[in-house]
Amino acid sequence: MLNQLVLSVAEVHNTTISSIVVVSGSFLILLALLKKYAWNAVVGMMDKREGKIASDIDTAEQSREKAQKLAEERQTQLNSSRAQATDIIRNAKSTGESSRQQLIADGQTQVSKMREKAQSDILNERENAMESVKDDVADLSLEIAKKILQEELSEQTHRALIDQYIESMGSDHETR
Predict the structure, then answer these.
(1) How far is the C-alpha of 148 from the C-alpha of 168, rounded, in Å?
(2) Residue 27 within any structural domain of the chain
C-alpha cells in the first residue's frame, strides 16, 4: 500500500494537492505507527514521571509540616527554658534575700545578747567590787576603831556598825 501511494505520487507532477495528500498520508501513517509501538511507552513514562513529581511534592509537604512542628516544639521548649530560668533566678534572689535577712537578725540577736552579757558582767563586777570595798572598809574600820578606842568591842558589834555605815554610804553614792 505504501508503495502504491509513493508510485501514485510520483506519477502526479508535483502538484500542491498531491503534496498535501502525500504529507498528510505520511503523517497519519506515522501517527498510527507511533500509537501502535511508542505511544504506550511514552504514556507510561509520563505517568511514572507524574507519579514521581506528585510523590516528591507530597514528601516536600510532609517535610515542611514536620519542620514546622519541630520549629514549634523548639520554640515551646525555648519558652519553657526561659520560664524555668526566670523561676530559678527569682528563687535564688528570694533565697538570698531571706538568707541576708536571717543573717542580719542573727547578728542583731548576738549583739543584743553580747550587750546584755556585758551589762550583766559589769553589774556583777560592780557588786563584787562593792563587796570587796565593803569588806576592806569594814576590816580597816575595825582596825582603826580598835586603835582609836583601845577598848575591846566584839567583832560582831563592830561589823554591824560598819555595815550600817557602809549601807548609809552606799545609798548616798547611789543617789549621786
Answers:
(1) 22
(2) no
